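Running this now, will post back.
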Amino acid sequence: MTGPATSSGDIVDLLLSQHQQVKQAMAEVQDSASDAQADAFDRLKLLLHAHEQGEQQVVHPVTRDAANGAGVAQQRVEEERQASAALSELSDLGVDHPDFAAKFVELRRAVLEHAGEEEAEEFPRLRQTLPTERLMAMANELRSVQAMV
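Update: finished.
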């Protein structure tokens, strides 16, 4: 999870940038064929893993505890658990399996819905309840967690 857009800004800016990276990576998987698709899918798996680990360690606990969003955080974690299971199933199938394309469309829809929910519910809650300094510190924490994944 690197790039110029991820090196500055608060936690919300960083996560929005990562959502764009995930969307682009999903499009690459969907638009590629065979070996290129397998490589694109491997990149997507790494990207999603780092993104979700960072959110689960840094973002959702703060949403739950400091931003009075226990239900919001719990729902996002459940969506991430389901996406992780779907990603694992796709990985086991492989890009050449006849069911891969249809199952990938389902995963893509779920990931986009999840990102939309975060952007509509969780991110505004963080910005409304936390001081800018805390949001900036959370971005640094997220980068640290993702560097270790």
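The mean pLDDT is 92. More later if anyone needs it.
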